[in-house]
């Protein structure tokens, strides 16, 4: 059965506004998203979307979230413009401080600076907000706790799946911030201004996925920068602490750029929704969308692409695997034998050893492991940790697998556990060796007699 999916390609990282812009560029309706957000009680929120060419002359989608006519990071709403805003604040600015003063992060942020999102709420803690001269004043704001935001999400008039996705993302965001600041999740609060922006981005993304009929989400590895980044709280390591926490378990690529490429909101969305990479999925591409951060980069386009695809079902009996392989010539057979057992216990689909002739005429062993694609990195690291090899090779593969199920066969000495294997020309019942050996030992009969008695063959009907 064909299923609809979105495959994300974070060319220069990910942020909430870039993902939302890419989905709107794919065909999602920003007006419908705004109506749902307002119906949930998010005030005078609005989403400004436009398409224009970036530095590399690629036409991209750009998003700004407005609150009462002002950009929802406290900056004035930009008028129609031909140049990107220098600080990409149009995306999830859901950290627990707003910015009434300039930031000096012209070199630090490729997207919005939503690191440092939230903090433990202290009574009486407030940040004065000064709009730029001549700008529309943003609405008065207060702190929103995670519980309040989740309650607002529940009021969004949308399918349950959209609300569940949005709640899942916000919980991940709250848990990451709580871990970074050493507080309980309930103590994490978002400023009104930042909360409006992040709610609009996150809920907007989930509503857009519903509009596009998306059942599954996949993403290529996220990009992160190096060095440090600056914010109102000072200098932070890059990626920001909350982003680093959210990226745990994700595949990432580090680019030699001293700027924030993946923000906490971008990391939260992708880590919460993505099922993994999409490079080995059979698919038919329906449409593509491109979201741009507000800053142009010289090194590469500051974009995130979204592919709307129909996933083709794999033929019966076929699945995707990753082959992991290495050659070993300086390890004892005992350690190698234990490694095979440990790999199977760790989740490998299959493990084998074959003899090889290595350099200097040394006899060695080739370790071959089959793994689910999502487990390949973990199992590769396991091999490097538990064997003497200094490197492994990996490549994607497809395997053909016969349909099989657990069964049992009666013998003169009792039942034996078997595999029921459906072969092209019939059904075979193959005894499990350990089960047959235990029965043979208990009854004092030769093992081969038990194995022979348990085997069955049912030819396929003509």
What does the overall shape look like? elongated
Instruction: Give the total of domains.
Output: 3
Q: Sheet with the most strands?
A: 4 strands, mixed
Biggest sheet, spatial arrangement of strands: 8-1-14-13
Explain this structure to me?
By secondary structure, this protein is an alpha+beta fold. The protein is built from eleven helices and 22 strands. The protein has helices at 16-26, 30-39, 146-154, 160-181, 192-211, 241-246, 264-273, 333-345, 376-386, 433-443, 447-454, and strands at 3-9, 45-53, 59-67, 70-71, 119-120, 143-145, 188-191, 216-219, 222-224, 228-231, 234-237, 252-254, 283-292, 303-311, 318-328, 350-357, 363-371, 393-400, 403-411, 414-423, 426-431, 456-459. A four-stranded mixed sheet has the order 8-1-14-13. A four-stranded antiparallel sheet has the order 16-17-15-18, covered by helices on one side. A four-stranded antiparallel sheet has the order 19-20-21-22. A hairpin with a 2-residue loop joins strand 19 and strand 20. The radius of gyration is 28 Å and the shape is elongated.
SSE blueprint:
Layout: E1 3-9, H1 16-26, H2 30-39, E2 45-53, E3 59-67, E4 70-71, E5 119-120, E6 143-145, H3 146-154, H4 160-181, E7 188-191, H5 192-211, E8 216-219, E9 222-224, E10 228-231, E11 234-237, H6 241-246, E12 252-254, H7 264-273, E13 283-292, E14 303-311, E15 318-328, H8 333-345, E16 350-357, E17 363-371, H9 376-386, E18 393-400, E19 403-411, E20 414-423, E21 426-431, H10 433-443, H11 447-454, E22 456-459
Parallel strand pairs: 1-8, 9-12
Antiparallel strand pairs: 1-14, 2-3, 3-4, 5-7, 6-7, 10-11, 13-14, 15-17, 15-18, 16-17, 19-20, 20-21, 21-22
Helix pairs in contact: 1-5, 2-5, 3-4, 4-5, 4-7, 10-11
């Amino acid at each position: 059965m064909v299923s609809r999916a979105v495959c994300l390609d974070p060319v220069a990282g990910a942020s909430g506004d870039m993902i939302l812009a890419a989905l709107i560029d794919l065909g999602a309706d920003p007006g419908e998203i705004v109506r749902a957000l307002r119906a949930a009680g998010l005030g005078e929120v609005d989403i400004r979307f436009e398409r224009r060419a970036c530095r590399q002359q690629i036409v991209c989608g750009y998003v700004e979230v407005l609150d009462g006519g002002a950009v929802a990071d406290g900056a004035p709403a930009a008028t129609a413009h031909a140049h990107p805003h220098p600080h990409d604040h149009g995306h999830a600015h859901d950290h627990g401080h707003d910015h009434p003063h300039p930031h000096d992060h012209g070199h630090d942020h490729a997207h919005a600076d939503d690191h440092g999102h939230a903090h433990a709420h202290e009574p009486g803690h407030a940040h004065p907000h000064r709009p730029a001269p001549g700008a529309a004043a943003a609405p008065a704001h207060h702190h929103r706790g995670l519980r309040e935001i989740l309650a607002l999400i529940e009021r969004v008039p949308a399918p349950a799946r959209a609300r569940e996705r949005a709640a899942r993302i916000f919980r991940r965001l709250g848990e990451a911030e709580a871990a970074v600041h050493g507080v309980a999740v309930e103590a994490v609060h978002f400023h009104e201004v930042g909360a409006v922006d992040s709610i609009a981005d996150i809920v907007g993304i989930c509503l857009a996925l519903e509009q596009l009929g998306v059942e599954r989400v996949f993403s290529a590895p996220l990009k992160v920068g190096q060095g440090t980044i600056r914010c109102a709280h000072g200098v932070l390591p890059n990626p920001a602490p909350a982003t680093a926490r959210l990226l745990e378990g994700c595949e990432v690529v580090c680019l030699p750029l001293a700027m924030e490429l993946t923000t906490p909101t971008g990391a939260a969305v992708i880590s919460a929704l993505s099922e993994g990479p999409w490079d080995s999925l059979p698919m038919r591409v329906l449409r593509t969308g491109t979201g741009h951060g507000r800053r142009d980069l010289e090194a590469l386009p500051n974009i995130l692409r979204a592919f709307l695809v129909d996933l083709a079902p794999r033929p019966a009996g076929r699945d995707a695997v990753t082959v992991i392989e290495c050659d070993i010539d300086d390890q004892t057979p005992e350690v190698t034998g234990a490694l095979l057992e440990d790999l199977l216990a760790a989740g490998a689909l299959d493990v084998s050893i074959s003899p090889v002739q290595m350099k200097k005429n040394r006899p060695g062993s080739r370790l071959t492991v089959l793994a689910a694609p999502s487990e390949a990195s973990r199992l590769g690291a396991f091999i490097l940790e538990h064997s003497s090899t200094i490197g492994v090779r990996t490549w994607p593969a497809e395997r053909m697998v016969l349909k099989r199920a657990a069964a049992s066969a009666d013998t003169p000495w009792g039942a034996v556990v078997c595999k029921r294997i459906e072969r092209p020309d019939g059904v075979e019942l193959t005894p499990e060796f350990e089960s047959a050996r235990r029965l043979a030992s208990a009854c004092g009969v030769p093992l081969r007699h038990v194995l022979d008695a348990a085997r069955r063959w049912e030819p396929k009907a003509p």
